[in-house]
Amino acid sequence: MEKNQEALIRRMRELSALLKEASRAYYQESREIMSNREYDALYDELQALEQETGLIFSDSPSQRVGYESVETLPKKNHIRPMLSQNKTKSVAELQAFLGNQPGLLSWKLDGLTVVLTYGQGMLQEAVTRGDGQQGALITPNARAFRNIPLRIPFQGTLILRGEALISYPDFEEINRQLPEHETQYKNPRNLCSGSVLQLNSQITAERRVGFYAFSLVEAEGLRFSYHHEALAWLRNQGFETVEYRQVEQENLPEAVEAFREAIQDYPLPSDGLVLLMDDIAYGAALGSTARFPRDSIAFKWSDETARTLLEAIEWSASRTGLINPVAVFRPVELEGTSVSRASVHNLSTVESLALGVGDEISVYKANMIIPQIAENFSRTGPQPPPACCPVCGAVTQIRDTGEVRTLHCPNPDCPAKQIKAFELFVSRYAMNVEGLSQATLEKFLDLGIIRRFADLFRLEAKRDRIICLEGFGEKSFRNLLEAAEKARHTSLARLVVALGIGGVGPATARLLTRHFKEDPLALSQASQEALTEVEGIGEITARSIRAFFEDPGKNQSFHELLAVLDLEKDRKETGPQTLRDLNFVITGSLNHFVNRDALKACIESLGGRVSGSVSQKTTALINNDNKSVSAKNQTAKKLGIPILTEDEFLLQYQINKES
After folding, report:
1. Pairing relation of β-strands 244-247 and 296-299?
2. pLDDT at residue number 560
3. Distance between CA atoms of 52 and 287, rounded to whole angstroms?
4. Would you say 436 and 426 are in contact if contact means Cβ atoms under 8 Å apart?
5. Angle at CA 235, nearest 5°, toward 231 and 239?
6. Kindly report the CA angle at 14 between 8 and 18, in degrees rounded to 5?
7. How far is CA 507 from CA 129, 423, 432, 493, 522, in A?
8. Which positions of the chain have pLDDT values less than 70?
9. Contact in structure between 274 and 296 (CB atoms under 8 Å)
10. How far, CA to CA in Å, does 278 sit from each of 245, 252, 400?
């Protein structure tokens, strides 16, 4: 029954996404992606499922929810006080806390805690945590959360707690859509708090606030023995729940390490973990202190700090024209890596910290990832901002909103704003640098990590800066280097497409390179008349090509690329591509191959791909210990991904490999 309910909920979410995409295409983009008949059929199916399950989501196309405005947010006392959690940074203390009891280890989500109350299957009330005794009544805004059920199958009184938050991708998209003159939001938590506490629920809806349940307080007439059972029941009522693992004292360190690895790519803001006694009766019997419940404890990532000297403040221009300060300091070791740079956010931050060159400062990695300045002990500044843009030399402007001061470049042609050119350069039909997203390109451009196309193939020298960025770590950096190295071995035709010459797409690029016998210098030096002799090239395209190579800056960029690329002629596959379009993950020790790199090379020579983490796109996990309780094995089992020993892999795919 539960499995069937989960399948119905998945189908409802699929239908909702399809219908919303069709409406957006029709009403906002004046195009049709499905006929009226198809739309009506999907709409009818969604309504039938809502009737069958008794479940309606707040963002369902079947709903026409009006937005509400209020003059104030009333206060509401909590029936049960919401206590803070005791904290530790020691895994050993976590183990001692758990003892011989079963536990649940989950993300400690960094948003705004909200209590929801349902009655007769309908959302009746939503209250923020506030001070733990009293919170703000935000029911109209909660109805605008993007994933919250407005109606559920359960008809009794239901009270649950969860975290309201905005994901990193949504946060970045909201910042991207801001007008150039507006200051960007600092972090998802602040944006979420401001969105949830709005007096107009339409603003809450526009900010794409999500809700993730982490605790069932009361379900009238129902009793659960374990918290994981209660969370599973909430999922069948249509709620999204916090991601968790069932743990015991012995495997707790491994589970913590798995979360530590996963935080690099986790899309939701989190500032640690929560360990909860899974046995509900046992946890309740422990009671609480005046401040903390005794059935749970928070685990905070340890923020290692170090003292160092500020050597410079660099300023990096972004695509919006905002020029961001970056502190450059004497390198220190933090969390196992050398760190020498940290973002300082804006001009106001430089001024409030009174940063001056030579100051003694303390630095740390927020959540063990993002370098930050904790304190300035000398305070000899502030150092004045640059009078000219560091990228284009235009006279800079200081903008003051009354709350924050920021520095801007007013030049519309500033290279830092040319994100589109880089997007084309790395795209599939051009250089095909896999995994290099627009957001990452923008970040690299903002910080001056890349300024010219050739810089994408010199990233090894920028390792220390890149691995300190939010969303990056050593693994992500290595994946990026591998993608760039793979893209470096390319054809002249792809390079020509990547240059962004007007009128030159993949087909035209192939015509050009064949005509000039794949000689890049012959192509770049060809006259307009010579170009028109190429079959399929007309006067306009020839003029565009000639103009490109006569531009000193673009011609220089082209020759810089020739120096770092390996242009291959007539690339042909050297053997049968029996693993084409298949994706593998390798873990553990090997018997037939010297190391994982050797097995990876074998897979790639047969057309397959190897990634570092298990996902729904994974064909199989290769692990000689298929009974391991490692994070990769657990994820593979959860997703139904086959786990193959080395021998099983070689046999199944008929690969001959001598030991």
Report:
1. unpaired
2. 92
3. 41
4. yes
5. 105
6. 145
7. 60, 19, 16, 9, 19
8. 1-3, 23-32, 35-36, 40, 63-72, 179-184, 186, 290, 302-304, 319-320, 335-336, 366-369, 403, 420, 507, 535-536, 569-575, 597, 657-659
9. yes
10. 11, 14, 51
| Main-chain dihedrals φ then ψ at residue 202, nearest 5 degrees | -65, -35
Helix (H) or strand (E) holding 28: helix 2-28
Give pTM, 2 decimals. Answer: 0.48
Residue 588, token pair as written in the block: 């553990």
Residues paired with 388 in a beta bridge = 395
pLDDT confidence of residue 68: 54
Cβ(196)–Cβ(145) below 8 Å:
no
Q: How many residues does the chain have?
A: 659
Strand partners for 399: 406
Please state, in angstroms and rounded to a whole number, the distance separating the CA atoms of residues 427 and 456. 13
| pLDDT tens string 316-343 | 887 567 888 999 999 988 766 788 988 8
- CB 196, CB 164: distance < 8 Å: yes
Round to the nearest angstrom and report the end-to-end CA distance of the chain. 49
Q: Which helix (H) or strand (E) holds 643?
A: strand 643-644
DSSP state of 226: B
Q: At what angle do helices 539-550 and 552-564 cross, to 10 degrees?
A: 80
Residue pair 470/368 in contact (Cβ under 8 Å)? The answer is no
Structure tokens at 628: 């391991």
- What domains lie within the chain, and their CATH numbers? 2-53 (1.10.287), 75-299 (3.30.470.30), 305-408 (2.40.50.140), 418-490 (1.10.150.20), 492-567 (1.10.150.20), 583-652 (3.40.50.10190)
List b or e across 161-184, with b for residues whose CB sees 16 or more CB atoms inside 10 angstroms: bbbbbbbbebbbebbeeeeeeebb
Give the β-pairing of 609-611 and 583-586: parallel
Q: d(Cα 656, Cα 634) in Å, to the nearest integer?
A: 29
* Helix H or strand E segment including 339: strand 337-343
User: What is the distance of C-alpha 480 from the center of its chain?
Assistant: 15
Q: What is the pLDDT of residue 536?
A: 61
DSSP-based three-state secondary structure for 390 = coil
Do the beta carbons of residue 579 and residue 606 sit within 8 Å?
yes
Q: Which residues pair with 116 in a beta bridge?
A: 126, 160
pLDDT of residue 67: 52
Q: Is 146 exposed, middle or buried (0-12, 13-18, 19+ CB in 10 A)?
A: middle
Active-site annotation holds for 89 = no
Catalytic site residue from 108, 365, 443, 632: 108
Cβ neighbours of 489 (radius 10 Å): 11
398 touches 404 (CB < 8 A):
no
- Does residue 395 contact residue 375 with C-beta atoms inside 8 Å? no
Q: Give the span between the Cα atoms of 273 and 634, in whole angstroms.
A: 19
Burial zone of 80 (CB within 10 Å; 0-12 exposed, 13-18 middle, 19+ buried): exposed
CB neighbour class for 482 (10 Å; exposed up to 12, middle 13-18, buried from 19): middle
Distance CA 334, CA 311 (A): 18
Rounded-to-5 percentages of helix, strand, coil across the chain: 35, 25, 40
DSSP character string of 85-102: --EES-HHHHHHHHTTS-
Residue 468 structure tokens: 């300190």
What interhelical angle do 168-176 and 188-196 show, nearest 10? 80
What is the widest separation between alpha-carbon atoms in the chain?
Answer: 89
* Secondary element (H or E) of residue 425: helix 419-426
What single-letter amino acid sits at 577? Q
